[in-house]
Design a protein that fits this description.
D-Maltodextrin-Binding Protein, domain 2, single chain, alpha/beta, signal, 2 domains, 21% strand
């Protein structure tokens, strides 16, 4: 009887070990499935990086879900997604919530410089906007600035830049960045506010169509004018330049961290550049001919 129990125990242990090894073998950076949450403003660059990763690793399947930045962060904490794409600077309370819930030290993986842009319809006479106009306008009951939604990354970032809480700003809403572009001409004297990545893809026909409908306003700060172009982003001189980064709740090197590493390597950074954004980690190579 004792021998039978002993044999059963050994078989049980071997079965558990075998299952563990089998499970571990299924988890890898080059195979498996995961979900990424991204704000609508960063959706294009996120999907481009995901497509590149799945082409490089055909046994991976990555789903991109669109959610407001704050809600995507909560989904990350609650293990509903493996990666959240972020732009805002987290508060001490949010950092503590992440480190307590995820049980990891927070390490933002920065991969691109994007921007929040202010625009008017193409036929508008307005040609620039000052920081003072932005600050005063977002305190005015006229609500002349039109955002793509509450809790959006664009609203969060502008509020942080002005050292305000989003609830303290006065603004109008047209849900969805594309809708803001397409409908702004119905509202004279209004100024649209969207993320650059919505219109940044240089060779995309839809992005080109949207760009043709609007005039992006350079931002004047301390008497100098800055545009959200490559120079303005690479040197961080455009006042509303923002850095996009990934947060993950994965503590080992599996598909999430594999994707993050890919996005920050030269290949991933080339995809970022093709999206019309400023790569964060890319470097120029100098070749000396002799």
């Amino acid at each position: 009887m004792k021998n039978s129990i002993k044999s059963l125990f050994i078989l049980s242990v071997l079965f558990i070990v075998g299952c563990s090894k089998k499970t571990e073998s299924k988890v890898s950076y080059n195979k498996g499935e995961m979900t990424i949450s991204t704000d609508e403003s960063f959706k294009s660059v996120t999907e481009a990086l995901v497509e590149g990763y799945m082409i490089s690793y055909p046994e991976t399947k990555i789903k991109v879900v669109t959610n407001k930045e704050d809600l995507g962060f909560l989904d990350l904490l609650n293990d509903k997604v493996r990666i959240s794409v972020m732009s805002k600077e987290l508060s001490p309370e949010e950092i503590k919530a992440y480190e307590d819930k995820v049980d990891l030290k927070i390490i933002p993986a920065k991969f691109a410089a994007d921007a929040v842009v202010f625009f008017v319809p193409k036929d508008s006479e307005k040609s620039s906007i000052t920081m003072e106009e932005i600050t005063a306008g977002l305190q005015s009951d006229e609500k002349n600035f039109v955002f793509d939604g509450t809790n959006s990354s664009n609203l969060n970032f502008v509020a942080q830049k002005l050292k305000k809480q989003p609830k303290d700003l006065k603004f109008s809403i047209i849900p969805g960045s594309i809708n803001v572009i397409e409908e702004l001409n119905k509202y004279p004297n209004k100024i649209g506010v969207i993320g650059l990545n919505t219109i940044s893809r240089p060779y995309d026909k839809e992005a080109q169509k949207l760009r043709d409908m609007i005039k992006i306003l350079p931002v004047v700060n301390n008497g100098k004018s800055y545009s959200p172009d490559f120079n303005g982003l690479s040197e961080m001189k455009y006042p509303f330049t923002r850095v996009l980064y990934f947060l993950t709740n994965e503590g080992n090197f599996n598909i999430a961290n594999g994707f993050i590493r890919y996005s920050c390597t030269q290949l991933g950074q080339m995809i970022v550049e093709k999206e019309g954004l400023q790569p964060y980690n890319i470097y120029k190579r100098e070749v000396q001919m002799r």
